[in-house]
Amino acid sequence: MTTTSPSSPPPIGWRERFRGVMGGGRLSATRQAAPSAEIEGHGKDWAFAAPPGGIANPAEAEVSFPVRRKQQPYRGGRRAISPEVLCGMVQVLDVVAIALGGVLASAIYLVAIRGDQAEYHRYWFAVVVAALIFAVAERKAGGYTLKRLTRLGWQLGRVSIIWGAAVSILSTMAFAAKVAETYSRGWAAVFAVVCLTELCLIRVVLSFLIQRWTRQGQLSRVVAIVGAGPLGEQIIGKLRGATDPAITVAGVFDDRLSRVPSIIAGCQVVGTTNDLIAQVRSSLIDEVIIALPLRAEARIGELIAKLRSLPVDLRLSLDPIGGIFPIRGISQVASVQMIEVLDRPLKHWSGVVKWIEDRLLGTVLLVLTAPILAAIALAIRLDSKGPILFAQDRFGFNNNVIRVYKFRTMRVEQSDYSGTRRTVPNDDRVTRVGRILRKLSLDELPQLLNVLLGDMSLVGPRPHVMAMKAGDRLYHEAVGDYFLRHRVRPGMTGWAQVHGLRGEIDTPEKARQRVTYDLWYIDNWSIWLDLKILFMTVRVILSRQNAY
């Protein structure tokens, strides 16, 4: 028995056998192959390849799987571009551009304008610090991801903001270190303008290139699905519904060809796993997803053993259980494999950073607002009888009850310690001073004491009273995931509050929306997000929206 190699001529009669196979209607005796127009257009580029253990000579097999030798069917023969490498190269390019900006600024201002000798050594430290600040901040903002790199407007706006912040930080550092006189202000201005121009130009050119590479399929991740059952159909539907141009479904493969339809969710069932192996050997497929029920562990084991030698990313779909609960990853404890469902938030170094943030900023804010606190206390004392502070039991960390302090804004005889009655606009229980404090949210300032005591954080989900209602139902009854927000300490301000969800919650829909924002904050916490929320809080307070 002889085999056909790419360099040797095909056996006699190969064109007739090829047309018979492709025109007969099915690969592996059951599946249709490519249209005849494509066959004739690429007839010279095809040869027959046998799967492992199969028959290589098409004359000795009833049907063989056609393999394209010279062209990659999903990228037009062009080399694939890794999105991860591309994003990393953009970051390197930014640093190089800023370094080049320092050299150009010296050449333009010091040499061309002033006629002085270029003293690069005086500015290299400032250039390096500026490059590091920009690269780290841009990465934290998510600017070095393929999804964000495709959004030119977002990139230009974010680059301008971050570069402006980097220059401001650099200027502040120079002033604080008393070395500002070492640097030329003219050089600094030219450096800032040149670097911003370079960074924006990089984004414009990159946006054009990404669009071009996307059209050519070079940024596409070619995926093959193994399993033509309901799970495979579900996965294909999600992949196509995501409208992600970086994902291309090469086809579906299933060994049960006689029992599955020829098309699944609009995608052709190409052949068996033997056909998949042959196709991977001849054309570029990046990832193979096994879409079988987890209870079919024996069959899954066979497929993994069969496909593990292929140079692809082999994945097992967990979509059946992924729709029931979140999956964060796979871990191992004492040789026991486990699916990670939820991580305790703010653990390890995150918890340490959060603790330092609360204590440090809490102390600074308490010192800075001490005169305001004293003035408010005096105004409350002069306005109405009763205590200056109002203490109320609320939900804290891990559903524990904590005592939260506020400035008293209601008449003593009408104060609601249980919180069953919501505060509404023009509430007759609120005092004259209390109305002003509520509009400016100054009644919350004593909660800085709660922060320093460790009961609260500066930023986090707002603490609720146990009897708080959403509409006519208790909050935890109206929102199923309500208690998940108590996995961190409550905060003086939060992600929901800076998005307009403050004040009265009178419907279950508003309650669910607020909890959704709280849970997003918990899952995406960072020190930068906390600082962003604190700055946004100032704007929200000045707007006085939903404050009464």
General description of the model:
This protein has 548 residues and is an alpha/beta fold. The chain folds into 4 domains: 1-70, no CATH class; 83-216, no CATH class; 220-342, Rossmann fold (3-Layer(aba) Sandwich), CATH 3.40.50.20; 349-543, no CATH class. 45% of the residues lie in helices and 13% in strands. The protein contains 18 helices and 16 strands. The protein has helices spanning 14-23, 36-41, 83-113, 124-140, 146-149, 152-176, 185-216, 230-241, 273-282, 297-307, 319-322, 349-368, 370-383, 432-439, 447-453, 475-478, 508-523, 527-543; strands at 46-49, 65-68, 221-226, 247-253, 263-264, 267-271, 287-290, 313-316, 329-333, 336-340, 389-395, 401-407, 457-459, 469-470, 473-474, 491-493. The protein has a 6-stranded mixed beta sheet, sandwiched between helices. Strand 7, helix 10 (297-307) and strand 8 form a beta-alpha-beta unit. Helix 3 runs antiparallel to helix 4 (124-140). Residues 1-73 have low confidence and may be disordered.
Strand order of the largest sheet: 5-6-4-3-7-8
Task: Estimate the helix proportion, in percent.
Answer: 40-55%
Describe the sheet with the most strands.
Answer: 6 strands, mixed
Structural class: alpha/beta
Number of strands: 16
Question: Mind sketching the topology for me?
Answer:
Layout: H1 14-23, H2 36-41, E1 46-49, E2 65-68, H3 83-113, H4 124-140, H5 146-149, H6 152-176, H7 185-216, E3 221-226, H8 230-241, E4 247-253, E5 263-264, E6 267-271, H9 273-282, E7 287-290, H10 297-307, E8 313-316, H11 319-322, E9 329-333, E10 336-340, H12 349-368, H13 370-383, E11 389-395, E12 401-407, H14 432-439, H15 447-453, E13 457-459, E14 469-470, E15 473-474, H16 475-478, E16 491-493, H17 508-523, H18 527-543
Parallel strand pairs: 3-4, 3-7, 4-6, 7-8, 13-16
Antiparallel strand pairs: 1-2, 5-6, 9-10, 11-12, 14-15
